[in-house]
């Protein structure tokens, strides 16, 4: 969870970085400079294939004998729905009360950075400056989270996390938006205010529902803005359609935390497991929009060889059963792969979304926490 251009967040377990693990070997091969080698992709022809009804269409779900619980659903989300999710994400979700990575570094407009950008593009005004937030000079609250369970695992990441958990967390209440912001994990290089066109490309993530502390990898169980209703409805339909495969009853499904990830070519997400949720039975739903990427999926043991899938706009990955805790990551976002269906084609209202998506991959993933 988390990424920044050429910097990987969260820090990987030390052995992930050794060239010896199968995961790391495939990551390096996929990332190798130059043209992506398509032969690294998993052959999907021989994989078990199921058909489900979703959004009034019959669609194929690909399963993997070696990776039980992993389902890959190409073209799961119809184009119009892709567009409305991306639009709602940028206009409505990346703004208070939800927190995004930029909040720790900048005082953003309470209407959200996207709406400020669009308003400026549609005006004849000079480019707005975004004011830098300074954690050195603001009055900070020392915020102690309700629970801090220590982890038994013996890995570098866990040791770092355990050290961080011993310290008081530094957070600040943004009085414009009434949202609590955690101190940044890493500082941005410049202390100067910046143009909005410099800041928008640095949007990396935004959290929905249960807000997340990225440094100690725990949810803030007391910071829970309402989950967007459209996502609740869409995910209910998906979990219902998949019941026969995941064995998870849709009556129990409740999306409680979501992350919207924004990647540009060159950004990566290193191998990780999603383990912060208490409920490990509910499936994790993950959607791709915009540019294509290569997604690696392994097992709970990172020394085992993962598979590589190419995810296109509208594709969905479902991690359930034993696959819910498997290592996975995104070593490559492929430039110039925006599909024609997401181009404006004369639709003036979509122009700025097309510009943004032509150099961005958006991932939305949904989890049940309890
Ligand atoms: O971008 C993706 O497809 C995966 C995102 C992910 O694994 C995460 O946010 O934990």
TrEMBL record:
<dbReference type="InterPro" id="IPR037151">
    <property type="entry name" value="AlkB-like_sf"/>
</dbReference>
<dbReference type="InterPro" id="IPR027450">
    <property type="entry name" value="AlkB-like"/>
</dbReference>
<feature type="domain" description="Fe2OG dioxygenase">
    <location>
        <begin position="254"/>
        <end position="370"/>
    </location>
</feature>
<dbReference type="InterPro" id="IPR004574">
    <property type="entry name" value="Alkb"/>
</dbReference>
<feature type="binding site">
    <location>
        <position position="274"/>
    </location>
    <ligand>
        <name>Fe cation</name>
    </ligand>
</feature>
<keyword id="KW-0560">Oxidoreductase</keyword>
<feature type="binding site">
    <location>
        <position position="328"/>
    </location>
    <ligand>
        <name>Fe cation</name>
    </ligand>
</feature>
<keyword id="KW-0408">Iron</keyword>
<dbReference type="Pfam" id="PF13532">
    <property type="entry name" value="2OG-FeII_Oxy_2"/>
</dbReference>
<dbReference type="InterPro" id="IPR005123">
    <property type="entry name" value="Oxoglu/Fe-dep_dioxygenase_dom"/>
</dbReference>
<feature type="binding site">
    <location>
        <position position="272"/>
    </location>
    <ligand>
        <name>Fe cation</name>
    </ligand>
</feature>
<dbReference type="GO" id="GO:0005634">
    <property type="term" value="C:nucleus"/>
</dbReference>
<dbReference type="GO" id="GO:0046872">
    <property type="term" value="F:metal ion binding"/>
</dbReference>
<dbReference type="GO" id="GO:0051213">
    <property type="term" value="F:dioxygenase activity"/>
</dbReference>
<dbReference type="GO" id="GO:0005737">
    <property type="term" value="C:cytoplasm"/>
</dbReference>
<keyword id="KW-0479">Metal-binding</keyword>
<keyword id="KW-0223">Dioxygenase</keyword>
<protein>
    <recommendedName>
        <fullName>Fe2OG dioxygenase domain-containing protein</fullName>
    </recommendedName>
</protein>
């Amino acid at each position: 969870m988390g990424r920044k251009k050429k910097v990987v967040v969260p820090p990987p377990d030390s052995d992930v970085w050794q060239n010896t693990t199968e995961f790391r070997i495939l990551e390096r091969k996929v990332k190798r400079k130059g043209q992506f080698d398509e032969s690294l992709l998993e052959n999907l022809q021989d994989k078990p294939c199921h058909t489900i009804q979703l959004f009034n269409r019959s669609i194929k779900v690909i399963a993997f004998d070696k990776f039980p619980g992993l389902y890959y659903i190409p073209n799961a989300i119809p184009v119009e729905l892709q567009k409305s999710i991306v639009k709602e994400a940028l206009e409505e979700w990346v703004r208070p009360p939800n927190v995004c990575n930029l909040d720790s570094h900048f005082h953003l407009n309470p209407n959200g950075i996207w709406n400020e950008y669009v308003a400026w593009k549609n005006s004849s005004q000079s480019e707005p400056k975004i004011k830098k937030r300074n954690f050195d000079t603001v009055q900070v609250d020392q915020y102690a989270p309700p629970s801090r369970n220590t982890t038994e695992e013996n890995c570098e990441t866990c040791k770092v996390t355990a050290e961080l958990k011993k310290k008081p967390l530094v957070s600040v209440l943004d009085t414009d938006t009434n949202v609590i912001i955690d101190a940044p994990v890493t500082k941005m290089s410049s202390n100067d205010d910046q143009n909005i066109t410099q800041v928008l490309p640095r949007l990396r993530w935004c959290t929905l529902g249960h807000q997340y502390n990225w440094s100690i990898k725990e949810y803030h169980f007391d910071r829970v803005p309402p989950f967007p209703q459209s996502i609740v409805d869409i995910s209910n339909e998906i979990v219902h359609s998949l019941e026969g495969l995941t064995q998870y009853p849709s009556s129990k499904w409740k999306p409680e935390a979501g992350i919207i990830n924004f990647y540009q070519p060159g950004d990566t997400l290193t191998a990780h497991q999603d383990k912060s949720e208490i409920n490990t039975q509910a499936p994790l739903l993950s959607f791709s929009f915009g540019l294509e990427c290569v997604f690696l999926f392994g097992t709970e043991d990172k020394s085992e060889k993962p598979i590589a899938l190419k995810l296109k706009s509208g594709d969905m990955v479902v991690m359930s059963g034993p696959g819910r805790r498997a290592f996975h990551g995104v070593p490559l976002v492929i430039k110039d792969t925006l599909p024609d269906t997401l181009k404006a084609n004369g639709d003036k209202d979509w122009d700025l979304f097309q510009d943004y998506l032509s150099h961005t991959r958006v991932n939305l993933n949904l989890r049940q926490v309890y």
